[in-house]
Amino acid sequence: MMPPGKSRYDPGWRRKDLAILILLCGVAGGTMLAGSLDRRGGAGPTTRVDDRRVRAARESIDPNTASAASLRRLPGIGPAKTQAIVEYRTHCPPPAFPSPKDLAKVTGIASTTIERIRPYLPTPPSR
Hints:
Layout: H1 11-40, H2 51-56, H3 68-72, H4 79-90, H5 111-117
């Protein structure tokens, strides 16, 4: 028999169980949210390179003659940089880019971008 004043269901125990359950649900939900943000690329400033574009760019792409679609296959070259390269080379006498380092003359292209795309550019003739 139960002592007087005691219930068969202890509400303190049930509140503790509920608090633990809410805490575990919060941790699980936060973990899932962080994982989905990471997969979508929204969890930080990391730059992802599309592997399909890199594999397609294994051949040599000459920035003096390549189409905009070919230039876009280079890692780190998006629509804005592609447009800048095309506009720059239309206003310069050919060849606009005798060597890869000459790409630095284009607005928005830094030396780090040039180093990233150097393996996909033709080697300049030795002087």
